Amino acid sequence: MIVTDKFVFVHMHKTGGQSLNDIIKRCIPDHRDVGYHYPRSETPEDKLGLPVVGIIRNPWDWYVSWYAFNKRPQINNPLFNVVSDSGQLNFRATVRNLIKLGADSPASERYRSELIGLLPDSLTGNRGAGLTKDSIRSITESNSGYYSWLAGRMFGDTDDDRLLVGRFENLQADFLDIMRSLAVEETDEMEAALAQRARRNVSHHSHYSHYYDDALRDLVAEQEHGLIERFGYEFAAVKPAGVSYEFPDDAYLGENNGFRKLLGRANSYLQLHEQFDVQALKGCIEKIPAEKWLESERERLFAVHKHTQSVLLVRFEDFKHNKPEFEPLYFELEAALQPLIDYVADYYQNNGFTVRLLLAKLLAGGNIPHHTDAGFSLLNCHRVHIPLITNDEVIFSVGGEEKNMKPGEFWEINNGIDHAVENRSDQDRIHIIVDWMPNFAGLPHEEALKPEGVVENGDGAPAETLEAMIAQAYQVHRAGQAARAESLYRQVLNLDSRNVAANNLCGLLFIQTGRFEEGMRCISTALEEKPDDAQAQANLGLALKGLKRFDEAAQHFHQSLQLNPGNANVYNNLGGIYIELRRIEDAVLCFQQALAIQPALAEAHFNLGSALMQLKRYHQAASSLQQGVDLKPDFEAGRTMLDQARRYSSCGKS
Predict the structure, then answer these.
(1) What CA–CA distance (Å, rounded) separates 37 from 543?
(2) I need a surface site. Which of 147, 253, 287, 438 has the fewest CB within 10 A?
């Protein structure tokens, strides 16, 4: 807690408070440091009437940050030690125990008893968790989760008009807005100091959503619902549904890893090249279709990028389940990209690799507000901006220093400190961004990029890792992002070329995009490993149908039905093969069987109606087609066929 003549600052754990503490102490001469992590109840009597300033954080994100910080070997937090069973429990188990610390259960009661035995009677001299024996005794009076209880302990009544709370996600802007609202004279000085300040206590973990399973996500939502509603938070899922990842063992990045932004030569910008020829790449970029710029959804996932569009060429995630992932478009542009990448690699002495490569469009009149990047790879790479299409009205700000970058210039920016961009023009701006990560271990390229846990002598990555990667690919596949899904499936197959699920799903994707030969090869590989896979047999039938090898397709549809006789879609597809083979009566039986299994399968009703039309059974055809139209009113071809069947039926042709 720091008190000044105009406000009291309460340092809530893991909300950027250390940075604000330092800024207040540096810029406001008449401050008084009351105590580390002291709650509002400890405010000196002569300051009780002052506004109280604090910062709050998304609860799901807060628990990840708290766990990562306290997992550091040099940290000895009694709270973490108790709820993690001395560090033996993983993230999900530890956080579950913490959330339920005040619960009426034997386990929670045991944890509270242990803490009461470990914690001090008062906060005097505290430099740790900021808890006392009495505070743990009081936690049972709360009906909420630990974080909501802690917010109440630190800030008091969150509806108090004298309490001014900013959001961690907009830390600097919110804090400065509060300072201006209180007419703090040193606000401009604090703004300049914040712009120059780099992030501290960097953890080696990815977006918080990666570490939550559905049960823990919902537990936070239930136990912290009051705080979530009060501050408008929600769970942003930047991961496949139903998937969660283990926390990396090396979750904290120490201070002595040797990496320095801008090679330690400057604080905000470092120019690598003055005028590189980017015309060839610019010409390629201008041909990228508009819809391609919307595929990454970066502007939806990250609020600061809401005025941007992006094309991801090389992807990388911090949680180390994947190598940097090269998208198909990268290979299409490789000839134009390679000279730029070679120059970046040469500048950093070829000691490292490209972990991320993207095209970043800032829309006309748009801006990227002031922020500081987070995440291990973003803070431990050289982020190089290369303008391709820009103008004099695009202004980059890093550490308070403004710059207009010209086409063909190479600039490393310090994204670890406050930075922002404004496009004040009526034209879109496009940069290519290269993230170059040094290879401090000096490992060969293929070794340095190998996903954690890969086995050298044959079996590829662990099964759970491959399953997570396949789940991610399938989610993208179902969302209709074929190129992205293919890239993900190929990554799995690079690790395990015989993987049944990846071969089957990648083969299905090839079929859906008209690449039947490739689809047949993938699915055949899956069937070599697992001949009794009913879905793979059916998918191979689809590939053979696309190649017009109808007799072979029928054989595989039959094999699929022998393995799983209850699949209506396979009966429907087999009926389509019989139509091609002019075995119309057999087709009718297949379509009827499909509908016996799944009466609401509109496609089977239309197919049955079409087959019955060929047999001149118009009255029956009309009945089936009518059911199809009822299920799918917008299918015009079905309506046309229904009208024809009715005309023939009324003319006595049935």
Answers:
(1) 64
(2) 287
What pairing do the DSSP bridges indicate for beta strands 394-398 and 401-403?
A: antiparallel
Q: Which residue has the tokens 């609860």?
A: 59
Q: What are phi and psi of 401, to 5 degrees?
A: -100, 120
Q: H/E/C letters for each residue in 305-360?
A: HCCEEEEEEEECCCCCCCCCEECHHHHHHHHHHHHHHHHHHHHCCCCEEEEEEEEE
Contact partners, residue 17, CB within 8 Å, separation at least 6: 9, 11, 55
β-pair partners for 383: 413, 435
Residue type, 556: H
What span, in angstroms and rounded, lies between the C-alpha atoms of 400 and 196?
7
The answer to whether residue 448 scores a pLDDT higher than 80 is no
Are 224 and 145 contacting, i.e. CB atoms less than 8 angstroms apart? yes
Q: Mean pLDDT for the chain?
A: 86
Any idea what the Cα angle at residue 363 is, between residues 358 and 366, rounded to 5°?
115
pLDDT for residue 125: 64
How does pLDDT run across 117-130, given as a tens digit for each residue?
888 888 876 656 78
Which residues pair with residue 643 across a beta bridge?
none
The DSSP symbol for 205 reads: -
Q: Classify the phi-psi angles of 484: left when phi > 0, otherwise alpha if psi is within -120 to 50, otherwise beta.
A: alpha
More confident residue, 367 or 18: 367
| pTM recorded for the entire structure | 0.53
Q: pLDDT per residue over 529-553, tens digit each?
A: 999 999 999 999 999 999 999 999 9
Q: What is the CA radius of gyration of the chain?
A: 31
| Nearest-angstrom CA–CA distance, 538 and 298 | 36
Quick one: how far is CA 469 from the chain centroid?
13
Question: Measured between alpha carbons, how far is 410 from 522 in angstroms, rounded to an integer?
Answer: 42
Beta bridge partners of 89: none
**Which residue from 407, 425, 424, 421 is spatially nearest to 285, judged by alpha carbons?**
407
Q: What is the pLDDT of residue 253?
A: 42
Query: Which among 202, 248, 241, 434 has a CA at the least distance from the CA of 324?
Result: 434
Confidence of residue 65 (pLDDT cuts 50, 70, 90): confident
Q: Answer for the pair 272, 436: CB distance below 8 angstroms, yes or no.
A: no
Model pLDDT, residue 128: 62
Q: How many residues does the chain have?
A: 654
- What is the DSSP code string of 176-192? HHHHHHTT-TTHHHHHH
DSSP string, 272-302: EES----HHHHHHHTTS-GGGGGSS-HHHH-
* Closest CA relative to residue 251, chosen from 197, 206, 198, 189: 206
Task: Indicate the pLDDT class of residue 245, thresholds 50, 70 and 90.
Answer: low
194-211 average pLDDT score: 68
CA dihedral 23, 29, 35, 36 (to 10 degrees): 10
Which residues share a beta bridge with 412?
270, 384
Q: Which of 644, 648, 603, 591 is nearest to 627 (CA)?
A: 603
- Give buried/exposed letters for 130-160 (b at 16+ CB in 10 A, else e): bbbbebbeebeebebbbbbbbbbbbbbebee
Distance CA(23)–CA(615), nearest Å, equals 85
Task: State how far the Cα of 654 lies from the Cα of 648, in Å rounded to an integer.
Answer: 7
**Residue whose structure tokens are 């053979």:** 544
